[in-house]
Amino acid sequence: MLQKLTSRTMAVVVALLLLSGAALASAPKRIVSLNGSMTEILFAIGAGDQVVGVDTSSIYPPRAQGLPKVGYQRKISAEGVLSLKPDLVIGTGEAGPPPVLQQLRSSGVDLKLFEDKWTPESTYAKILFAGKHAGKEEQARALVSRMKQAIAALAKPEKEWRVLFIYARGPGMVQVSGSGTQAHSMIELAGGKNAITGFNGFRPLTSEAMVGANPEVILIPTRALASIGGIDGLLRIPGVALTDAGKNRRVIAMDDLLLLGFSSRLHIALRELISELSALK
After folding, report:
1. Does the pTM of the predicted model rise above 0.90?
2. Are residues 97 and 198 in the same domain?
């Protein structure tokens, strides 16, 4: 009986080793990431050494900044991607333009794109998607489990603040978020209320819209705030100083990719935003 059990055990061990070896052999060795969020995820699940190229939105972790660039995610260079000889090109539905994606597919490149929905559930699915295609499924599942536990433990602020998200590239290009954006989702997930929901996406900021929305809090990416001269520069934009947020200088600035990335640091982003909102008076 003992001999039979030993033989069976050995057979199971050998089978597992063979499966493990096959998985390692099929894992891509040269990955090009077309999205900053996806790049962050690949590094978080231990596939960073497999990444040989990224798009220009891939600024985290710092190690990714030193990798060859293949253009911005919506304006990818097919030549740049193909020159890196990837065996996997991975990104989100934001990748483009379509003719370039078709060119990559026609060349025989394994192109995998995830359709993001900017929710925790979609983020978990995106991590598992990356893990599956990068040969890091176990690591991806472990990361998702940790994130779920961390997010479940968060307590939302007592007050439901009316928050307006502003994006800027200098004083001449200032836009506000309506519904259907990463910013809208983050505001709601952190227990706030988006101050403008009458349209989807982004629109140029007008003084009338700003005063009409009268946000209690302004949420803005750190680099966007710097591009308009900090909080003082923000208050000089027509209408901002007349709002409740402007009068009380209630401005929350967060790292762009952390705040809007919906990636492997989503739990950290939510914790930081909730903490900032909870500290307001």
Report:
1. no
2. no
pLDDT tens digits for range 114-155: 999 999 999 999 999 999 999 999 999 999 999 999 999 999
Q: 176 with 253, same domain?
A: yes
Tokens coding 269: 């982003």
Q: Which domain holds residue 177?
A: 162-278
Q: How big is the chain by its Cα radius of gyration, in Å? A: 22
What is the rounded CA–CA span in Å between residue 263 and residue 179?
Answer: 20
Token pair for 197: 């929901």
**Tokens encoding 226:** 């710097």
Q: How far is the C-alpha of 215 from the C-alpha of 220, rounded, in Å?
A: 13
Write out pLDDT tens, residues 65-103: 999 999 999 999 999 999 999 999 999 999 999 999 999
Q: What is the CATH number of the domain that holds 58?
A: 3.40.50.1980
